[in-house]
Structure prediction request, 684 residues.
Amino acid sequence: MNLKELSQILGISQTTVSRALNGYPEVSEKTRALVNAAATQYNYQPNTKARGLATGKSKMIGYVLPKASQNEMPNPVFGDFIAGAAQTYGKQGYDTTITLTENDKQAETYRNLHAKRSVDGVIMQAPKENDERISILKKLGLPFVVHGRSTGSNDYHFVDVNNTHAFARATNFLLDLGHRRVALINGDENLDFAIRRRHGYLQALEDRGLEIDTGIMFSSEMTEEFGYRTMTKLLTMQSRPTAAVLSSYIMAIGARRALGENGLRIGKDFSIVIHDDALSYLPNGSTHPVFTATRSSVGEAGRLCAEILLDIIQNPEQKPRQIILEAELVVGSSTGPAPKHD
Amino acid sequence: MNLKELSQILGISQTTVSRALNGYPEVSEKTRALVNAAATQYNYQPNTKARGLATGKSKMIGYVLPKASQNEMPNPVFGDFIAGAAQTYGKQGYDTTITLTENDKQAETYRNLHAKRSVDGVIMQAPKENDERISILKKLGLPFVVHGRSTGSNDYHFVDVNNTHAFARATNFLLDLGHRRVALINGDENLDFAIRRRHGYLQALEDRGLEIDTGIMFSSEMTEEFGYRTMTKLLTMQSRPTAAVLSSYIMAIGARRALGENGLRIGKDFSIVIHDDALSYLPNGSTHPVFTATRSSVGEAGRLCAEILLDIIQNPEQKPRQIILEAELVVGSSTGPAPKHD
DNA sequence: AAACACATTCAAAGCGCTTTGGATTTATAT
DNA sequence: ATATAAATCCAAAGCGCTTTGAATGTGTTT
Prediction:
């Protein structure tokens, strides 16, 4: 069913039918009712491509997912992130399109997305320091919101967690409990968020005049496996740490496995604070938290990104909206006072 | 840059430029070279909507994600599933669009997707028994491939794991080790895959003439939390099981946590076999498996779905292609002989 | 009853592409 | 040289919608 057919059935011009359906005022309520009834009856929905061509808008939001060529690891938080956004999009009639691309071809992908006019705006994820994608998107004039931040430029819209503060608090929490050697198990430190987390960690140590030991600072893609291997390594050290801050729940699962295999009790023999993205399938306890954590919902961040993006698509030229979410520190049973002897 | 502008720059008609770019034979190699050079120079990319309108194809594959209204849980395997597919799509110039929808409005969403002509085909996920979506998609004439199966109808394309067989093997593996009370911690048994897994589990027990105890069979959404709670419950039972088969790694993480808290050693005091979707961020061990598992890569399934879908979009009317993947049984350290006394 | 404003409707143009059918040029056969 | 075939190119139509600008109908004012 298309507009022409529908208008013929009704014996009304296409113009009027289109206007009736789109809520324009210059059409009598009587005809509008007639048109609406017919539209529901035949389940008429305007062809998106035709409408897009005519209006110059695509009503599509793009997500470009970098796919590191070596391991093709999709981000485990992506599902939650986009789920938070999708509801907002749906309500305003936008759809979502995702494009996977080689890590080093992201810029090209954005350029093409824009050249093909297939999206009205994009959400950019996992920014690096001085991320070139930002300047490219700005040059293209394609509306975009960054999930995270990129140190280097400053005039763009973003939603980020206060990672520095979160990790400073996490580290301080452990130091307050008497821990003196606290390890860092971080995400890939090419990424801005991980850099900030390390800053927060270092800052807390420095504030107390504690020595920095790069031998107990680790950084990689955040898999269970990496958490396991790193914790295993930590436990074999001469003067081994009594605590660690970890950048993700997934890694903490691996770390816990390593502790278990070594007969160490989490929260007693070894303390852990994690950052918890509040993933739906991985709730950090329902009654009380399993892991002591800095918590910030990635679904919520996704929702905020979506709202800002839709807003700037409709009203461009507004000054950068920059939201920094404070993570809450929730205390679970993965932390305790530093063991007396070690 | 659009076709008109490009053709004016070249001093050639739009027809010829279009044909040159699309590889049609009726254009001299000389002009084709000229056109291609100019296209790259100005980064000309045909407007997707205009092209779609003209060709009647959208070059879009749709994924409809049911969002259970109560908990909004996005599927943790979705990222891997779509990553496997996206490469195939990209190579053939297709893009991916995902639509989140209320669980009970999926049928409507498919109908609308088709009415708006915004996709050339869809991948359907998480089928139930006698899933109404299948008959709707068939009626609409929208090409589709199901990830999983739906008992009830049989004439559609799908890619599924042999869940029955996998869980029969998993259960038998435990029975062979001397376990007599084996629990089942399953996914939501409204879903077809979970029904089949239960069948496999029951079949193995029945084959040995063992009693079925519905008191140690559980089913719910597959979260860490559910795994934890269920295992905790199992451990308080009078005649408690010595082993369990679990439908997901995520749940097993919760189960392991419960075991740890109770001072039980996994693989010694309690044995576990899981189903492992081979998620990229949750590898089941690198050198040797952590959990004994029936393993089948969901990324691979995604890739297969994509290939079939593109094929049937291009050549409709072929007889249903139905792929059943056999899960491999990998032996890890989460299983061992049944404890002597309990 | 004429003149005007306002409400309602419509025909047609245009969005940027593909593709049909025809026109023009060039090569080949008679 | 002429007829025929093949190669190459192009103007214009059409995909299904929105929107402009004009036309028609209705009600109000004088």
